[in-house]
What does this fold into?
Amino acid sequence: MERGVTGRRLRRRHALQAPARNVMPSNLLPLVSVVSVLSALFAWCYWPTIVGLSKEWQQNSDYSAGQLVPLVALFLLWRDRKILGTCVLRPCWWGGVALIILAQAARFYGLLFMFESADRYSLVLTIGGLVLMVAGWQVVRRASWILLFLVLMIPFPGRVHNLISGPLQKMATSGSVFLLEVFLPRVSQQGNVVVLDENTRIAVVEACSGLRMLTAFIIVAAFVAYMVRRPRLQKGILLLSSVPVAVMCNILRILATAVLMLVVSADVAQKFFHDFAGFVMMPAAVLLMFGELRLMDWLIVPEPVAPPERTSA
It folds into this structure.
């Protein structure tokens, strides 16, 4: 009899000491169900837009870096999972519904007037509305930079593309001619063509304007600005500096191509311009950004911290 009682006590003790299974709390089950349903509806509604974006990334080299933005955004969410886990979930239905209605109005405008960019930007706005609807303002504030980062996956509208591409093309041509005049005696510019001598010409066409570098460098600068621990002013300066960094790197690429064309051959210069230079410019741009952060450390003096006031005994 005593052995039976002792056995039951041991089994009960082992049952109490056994590790508990990871069972989802019952209060989270409705939230998970709502998120699943809303995600399915979002994918169903925006599937044609997502497919169109994917084709644009694959076919247009100027915006091929946009396909990395969703993956980087997921990485940033995973990195900040502990911080986001401390947020209090307070769904804001009215705010989320208002954002979604605004997004659908923009989408309807885009479909009505054949303005594809409005449909694409409404995708990001809808994601923000869904997050606000399910999680609340605190989560939206914590993840606001990541939500804004998603805008970088959208190609520029046609008008903006044409407005930027032309000046970039002219700056690349003029900047390369200015640097080449230091080393070569006979260099001239004819429109967007760099004339090295009577028989050697480099045409800086629209594909060589540096727009692909610009879009890629903006994405990299936004990622670096999010990762480093700096004041918002320094992060903003770093993000804005991606534009002159892209222009400078493109000018250096044209300069190296011209030197190779004169010293080696046109075929080697062509391969360098389209293949090797693209891989070299990105690490160079990242080094310039970190050098810029180092320079800001030297130029910006932190405010002195006031000593604590002493209380009289």
Notes: The chain has two domains: 35-155, 159-298. Residues 14-25 have pLDDT under 50 and may be disordered. The CA atoms of residues 66 and 153 lie 4 Å apart.
